Amino acid sequence: MLSPAPPPIAPHEEPTAEAKDDSVTVWALAARGGDPHAVDLFVRALHRDVRRYVMFLGADPQSAEDLTQDTFLRALSSLHRFEGRSSARTWLLSIARRAVIDSIRYASSRPRLSDTDDWQSAAERVQPRGLPGFDDGIALAELLDALPGDRREAFVLTQLVGLPYAEAAGVSGCPVGTVRSRVARARTSLIEWLDDAERRTPAVAAA
């Protein structure tokens, strides 16, 4: 059985986020029906988004790959319940969020054996480049880590993963207006920190 073809895209036309989500949802529904090729397409299409999301939300960034794998294992075992009422990406990121929460709860219930987590270097390896206002010399991951958790999540979902605000609200379990407010506050904080870093740079150079 061949997996359904994604919605057609005009030649030389870059697919929109909505078109990509439609394709992934089609693959998820086909995977639910037992199509192994659709399973592969579904995993490949969303692996990067899930890993980026758990990297910025996870208590231990070095476990990002494990959390990503856990997310897909949970999703594949629950595909029979996916009916396409939301996009497959939104559904999957909701599962990723629960996986991160479960991981944090599990870690907090166990004694910490070492303090070898290198959050900054691990996050910098996956930080996106080319975002307006973020120079390569400034670690976006470090700035995001300084944000309150709810604002960081809203910013990551909408600005890095690319979810529409309504879908980000579904993942986070809060109203759309709350997501918009959190993103706006996160942007304000990040801009202020960037401006402060730029003001400090000449002083450091002069010293």
UniProtKB/TrEMBL annotation:
RNA polymerase sigma factor 70 region 4 type domain span: 139-190
Tree of life domain: Bacteria
Gene3D superfamilies: 1.10.1740.10, Winged helix-like DNA-binding domain superfamily/Winged helix DNA-binding domain (1.10.10.10)
Organism whose genome encodes this protein: Streptomyces broussonetiae
Limits of the RNA polymerase sigma-70 region domain: 42-108
Similarity comment text for this entry: Belongs to the sigma-70 factor family. ECF subfamily.
Name of the protein this chain belongs to: RNA polymerase sigma factor
InterPro entries: RNA_pol_sigma-70-like, RNA_pol_sigma-70_dom, RNA_pol_sigma70_ECF_CS, RNA_pol_sigma70_r2, RNA_pol_sigma70_r4_t2, RNA_pol_sigma_r2, RNA_pol_sigma_r3/r4-like, WH-like_DNA-bd_sf
Keywords: DNA-binding, Sigma factor, Transcription, Transcription regulation
PANTHER family per UniProt: ECF RNA POLYMERASE SIGMA FACTOR SIGC (PTHR43133:SF61), RNA POLYMERASE ECF-TYPE SIGMA FACTO (PTHR43133)
